[in-house]
């Protein structure tokens, strides 16, 4: 696909920023300054001041002498850089590939995007009118190359759209400064009488290289499209993304549902073609007031079932605040995984059964949170609390067998609860114990089973476990922490047997 | 004689028809699962444990809750024999997964959902019961209303998944649409011969309510992977049993 680029230039970027922050400055003469070699030098001047002929590079004291009423502010390049980046991100609604062009420009790769707005002219007008409504002085141009779009935006006087392949003609009458050259080369060109780019185009390349170096040739090549130029996008272009611009701003849940359905259908069709599925996805809504709202979903296994994914999004639609309306929906699969057609059978089930359980869990995760879902596998540890590990995946199978050689209670208290016991020495089970004010007499008992601390994980006294049964038949798991004669011992209730 | 046999057959068929009309199946997909409950089976309509329905368990104390979970695990063992998974929903869950292995369940085939509110537990249970591939859904709840149980019943009628509602230390008892209500109480175990120590888990299983069946009380033991009916109860227990029975029918 032939590339098309849009270059946006904000001629009064720094001062427009200040006017937006302080609207009372709108028609006042003011300037931004920065220290340079011990003097205060003008870096940017307001629109009214520029008309007076005050240009960046003048000394502030001179300007004050000409116009005593001028207000001065320090220049803040960091904030300007941030604003430029924010604007670039705002422009993501027009194309996925946007780059900043410091200090005061943006470059958009609009290849394949313009038709959504009904043509390049409407596309350009849409962006420029929105930006100028926002208080920015804007010039923009569309061309085949970044270089020519940049030149036309800043120095062009004719139509802002350069037809495909016509950049050489468009550049003919522009000054050499439109080629993004540095001051030394520009001075030399000026001295030799090169006033227009058209004069340069006809000269043999070897002569140009000898006199001006490779830089001029590569800049010329980039502008004419004979040399490639790479755009440093503010956000890497997402691979799995679908966009849906709306004719009218959408502000109802029903409308959002339709938008999600359409986007999912488009995305899932691509997933099927490429054998992939979505693990996490984000839906962004660009509102007409300039804000973006977004909702995200995650799945337990890669899915390309549009109906299922829609259900997950549906649970979160209520989180979207459409305000005055959403004009563009962007659905992006932020994490994509291969869907293997023949996945190993899980728990003796078919593939479709597995998928239906995974979908059920996705629904649950969407409603009560992913942290609510647990699955456990055995771990080779004797310490009861360490003998299981939680796993996130549904496919993971145990590496070791579940042990049944030692009694383990069906109910394990989250933390052992201290009890008071009456116990004969040395190693007999308790005769009775008191738990929560109730005395429980023990009729039968098994044990002890000594479980030592795993010294590579934690240190401390061992536990001696007893399985005991009271007179009514309730079965408990008790343990004594510590050894007799070796300091303090304490008894705990740790669980209930069935 | 032949005519009589035909009539019996006809009556049996009619009974089955009535039961299916009442939203009550005699087994999963027409095939009967043997839960090995022995004499308890006679209490059920059709003589077999009603799978594909919702059962209610009531546990007033922590020890009873453990006993109920043990009994449930024994039933799950049969339900999960064919493969498939089980959903175990709870709030402040105490179940220790490795212990399920003692009841013949592979603990990694159970998916635990730990929720914070009863409302979420019910929502998850309803979703789970709609998923035909699950073998069973267990939910530990404090309270459930009649209307909520009705929703679960509707979900189950379509999918034929077995559901267990376990009400631990709940307040007022309300009547639910569940097919049965069980109360499981631990009983003193008996070991073989004169061996000291704790024996196999033994419970007093009370079927307090069963639709189209006969309630009753039995003593069961879980031994070597199956339920065993304890036919010779000791003196103390049989007394309490008979007194309870009187109370029940009074």
Automatic annotation (TrEMBL), chain A:
CDD domains on file: PolY_like
InterPro entries: DNA/RNA_pol_sf, Rev_trsase/Diguanyl_cyclase, SulA_CellDiv_inhibitor, UmuC
Pfam families on file: IMS
Domain UmuC: 8-151
Keyword Transferase: yes
Listed GO biological process terms: DNA repair
Gene Ontology molecular function: transferase activity
Keyword annotations of the record: DNA damage, Transferase
Family per similarity comment: Belongs to the DNA polymerase type-Y family.
The protein's name: Nucleotidyltransferase
Automatic annotation (TrEMBL), chain B:
Entry-linked SUPFAM superfamilies: P-loop containing nucleoside triphosphate hydrolases
Annotated InterPro entries: ImuA, P-loop_NTPase
Alphabetical list of Gene3D superfamilies matching this protein: P-loop containing nucleotide triphosphate hydrolases
Protein name (Swiss-Prot/TrEMBL): Error-prone repair protein ImuA
Lineage of the organism: Bacteria, Pseudomonadati, Bacteroidota, Bacteroidia, Marinilabiliales
């Amino acid at each position: 696909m032939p590339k098309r680029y849009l270059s946006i230039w904000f001629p009064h970027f720094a001062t427009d920023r200040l006017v937006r922050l302080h609207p009372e400055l709108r028609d006042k003469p003011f300037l931004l300054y920065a220290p340079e070699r011990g003097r205060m030098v003008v870096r940017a001047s307001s629109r009214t001041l520029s008309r007076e002929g005050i240009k960046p590079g003048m000394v502030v004291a001179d300007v004050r002498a000409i116009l005593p009423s001028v207000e001065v502010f320090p220049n803040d390049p960091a904030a300007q850089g941030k604003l430029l980046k924010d604007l670039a991100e705002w422009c993501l609604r027009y194309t996925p590939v946007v780059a900043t062009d410091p200090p005061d420009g943006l470059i958009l790769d609009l290849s394949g995007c313009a038709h959504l707005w009904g043509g390049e002219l409407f596309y350009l007008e849409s962006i420029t009118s929105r930006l100028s409504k926002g208080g920015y002085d804007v010039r923009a141009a569309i061309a085949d190359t970044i270089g020519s779009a940049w030149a036309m935006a800043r120095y062009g006087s004719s139509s802002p759209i350069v037809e495909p392949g016509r950049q050489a003609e468009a550049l003919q009458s522009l000054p050499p400064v439109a080629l993004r050259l540095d001051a030394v080369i520009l001075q030399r060109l000026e001295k030799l009488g090169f006033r227009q780019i058209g004069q340069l185009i006809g000269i043999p390349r070897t002569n140009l290289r000898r006199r001006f170096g490779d830089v001029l040739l590569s800049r010329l090549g980039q502008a004419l499209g004979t040399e490639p130029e790479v755009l440093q996008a503010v956000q890497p272009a997402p691979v799995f993304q679908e966009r849906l611009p709306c004719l009218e701003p959408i502000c109802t849940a029903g409308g959002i549902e339709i938008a999600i359905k359409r986007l999912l259908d488009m995305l899932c069709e691509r997933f099927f073609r490429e054998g992939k599925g979505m693990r996490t996805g984000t839906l962004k809504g660009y509102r007409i007031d300039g804000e973006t709202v977004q909702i995200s979903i995650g799945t337990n296994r890669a899915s390309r079932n549009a109906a299922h994914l829609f259900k997950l999004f549906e649970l979160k639609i209520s989180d979207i605040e459409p305000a005055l309306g959403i004009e563009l929906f962007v659905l992006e699969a932020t994490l994509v995984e291969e869907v293997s057609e023949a996945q190993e059978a899980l728990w003796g089930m078919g593939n479709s059964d597995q998928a239906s359980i995974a979908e059920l869990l996705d629904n649950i995760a969407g409603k009560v949170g992913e942290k609510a879902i647990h699955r456990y596998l055995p771990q080779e540890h004797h310490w009861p609390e360490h003998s299981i590990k939680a796993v996130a995946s549904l496919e993971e199978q145990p590496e070791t067998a579940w042990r049944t050689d030692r009694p383990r209670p069906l109910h394990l208290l989250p933390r052992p609860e201290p009890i008071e016991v009456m116990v004969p020495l040395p190693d007999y089970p308790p005769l009775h114990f008191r738990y929560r004010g109730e005395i429980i007499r023990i009729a039968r008992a098994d044990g002890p089973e000594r479980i030592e601390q795993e010294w590579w994980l934690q240190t401390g006294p061992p536990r001696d476990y007893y399985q005991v049964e009271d007179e009514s038949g309730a079965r408990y798991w008790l343990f004594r922490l510590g050894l007799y004669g070796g300091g303090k011992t304490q008894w705990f209730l740790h669980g209930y047997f069935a | 004689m032949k005519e009589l046999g035909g009539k019996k057959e006809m009556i049996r068929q009619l009974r089955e028809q009535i039961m299916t009309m009442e939203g009550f199946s005699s087994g999963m997909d027409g095939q009967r699962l043997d839960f090995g409950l022995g004499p308890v089976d006679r209490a059920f309509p059709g003589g077999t444990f009603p799978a594909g329905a919702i059962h209610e368990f009531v546990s007033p104390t922590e020890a009873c809750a453990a006993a109920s979970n043990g009994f449930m695990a024994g039933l799950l063992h049969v339900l999960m024999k064919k493969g498939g998974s089980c959903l175990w929903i709870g709030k402040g869950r105490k179940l220790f997964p490795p212990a399920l292995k003692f009841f013949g369940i592979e603990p990694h085939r159970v998916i635990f959902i730990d929720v914070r509110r009863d409302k979420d537990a019910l929502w998850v249970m309803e979703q789970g019961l709609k998923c035909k591939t699950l073998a069973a859904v267990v939910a530990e709840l404090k309270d459930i209303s009649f209307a909520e149980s009705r929703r679960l019943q509707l979900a189950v009628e379509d999918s034929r998944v077995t559901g267990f509602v376990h009400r631990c230390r709940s307040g007022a008892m309300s009547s639910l649409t569940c097919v049965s209500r069980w109360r499981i109480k631990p009983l003193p175990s008996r070991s073989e011969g004169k061996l000291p120590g704790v024996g196999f888990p033994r419970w007093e299983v009370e079927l307090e309510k069963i639709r189209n069946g006969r309630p009753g009380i039995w003593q069961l033991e879980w031994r070597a992977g199956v339920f065993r009916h304890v036919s010779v109860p000791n003196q103390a227990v049989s007394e309490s049993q008979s007194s309870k029975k009187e109370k029940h029918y009074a």
